[in-house]
Amino acid sequence: MTPTWPLRRLRAVDDAQIDGLADVLIDCVEGGASVSFMHPLPRERAVEFWRRVAQGGAAGERALLVAEDGRGVCGTVQLVLDQPENQPHRADLSKLLVHRRARRQGLGAALMRAAEVAARECGKTLLVLDTASDEAERVYERLGWVRVGVIPGYALLPQGGLCGTTVYYRNLGG
To answer: What is the spatial distance between Cα 52 and Cα 57, in angstroms, rounded to a whole number?
Structure first.
């Protein structure tokens, strides 16, 4: 049986939530996820990142969604809502992160569906993302995202070495 995840959008983020988000980010980087950070990721740097995200959320520039289990934050995803004036219909889906303790239970897909709902609520009809994860690609494609292509040598893996990134989009209608 697949668990149901209580997902919510955080408009204000407290210190405990920042710490939980930092734990998830550090865990993902330690697990090899190419999510803009190198290994080892110092806790202070992870906390600083989430404080900036929280500021963007409070300003309405981002939508931050989280999932929690009995141990705290176990997954998150963001929508970057603040786009150029000629792209008011679009948002970037960013930092889909699932703690290793919560993987392979449907949480990534649940976060993606919640992000799409939040995007519609914010008036967005087009979402874009990029990923360096084969596992994430399978989730995105199952959910109807369209693969645009791969950019080779786009970023470094957390332990070093170049990796490509695959670009996807999802038309939400309108």
So the answer is: 9
How far apart, in whole angstroms, are the C-alpha atoms of residue 55 and residue 108? 24
pLDDT digits (tens, 9 = 90+) for 154-164: 999 999 999 99
If you search the block for the tokens 């934050």, which residue do you land on?
73
Burial class, 174, CB count within 10 angstroms (exposed 0-12 / middle 13-18 / buried 19+):
exposed
**Alpha-carbon separation of residue 121 from 56, 79, 81, 117, 144 (angstroms):** 17, 12, 11, 6, 19
The pTM assigned to this predicted structure is 0.96
Place of tokens 């995200």: 53
CA 120 to chain centre: 17
Name the band, by pLDDT with cuts 50, 70 and 90, for residue 5.
confident
Residue 72, SS3 per DSSP: strand
